[in-house]
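Hey, resending since the last one bounced:
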Amino acid sequence: MAYELVVGDGGSTLHVTVVDSETKAPMDLTGKTVQVRYAINGGATVEKSMTVLNQTSFRGQAQYQFLTSDLSAGGILDGEVRLQDGQPDQLTSVEMFHIPIRVPLP
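The structure tokens again:
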């Protein structure tokens, strides 16, 4: 079964593992700000802060739990992950992700 989101579901969690583009090893996210940036159906880009998990046990991993208001319409969520570590440069994920958002049955 493919991963999908549901309109109005506030319990869905996006869980990502950020890897180094050259070595493919999980990156240490300690001290970094991690954001998910997404647009639904080509609309306005939304930026949300992700929670960085314990980097000793879950190196490179972060998650975001969607709010009910985040998933207000069916369609496609196009997203990317952005890292910032206090420097003027930002690192944005190379690969975008696309997740369907379905309307629940009545």
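The chain has one domain: 5-102.

Sorry for the duplicate.
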